[in-house]
Amino acid sequence: MFEKYNNLQPLKEAAEILAKKSDWEPLYNAEVLANNKVPVTCAVYADDMFVEMDLSRETLSKIPNSRAWITNEYEHNGIRADGGRVLGKLFEMSDAIAENIANKQHIKLN
């Protein structure tokens, strides 16, 4: 990442120190995520300098009923740059997941 984004070079040493730290608390409970029942959508920014796309995709692969909108239209600032569009897309995706779940369970949505 530091080779790709030159403006992060001053942080490289600090990042390496943090990367060596091994006693972090878990960021999330994988078992809880694996038992998710509600629709989950998120925006994954292909060119995000803070969150690597592959890590987002790996996490999402473990969460049932989840979908990602993967886009290179924004970096890490989609909500700030174009919140209405980003949230509109995510709500649309959530509705589609909910409809799919309802159809599988023969539930009529309003």
From TrEMBL:
Domain of life: Bacteria
InterPro entries named in the record: AB_hydrolase_fold (IPR029058)
This protein's name: Proline iminopeptidase
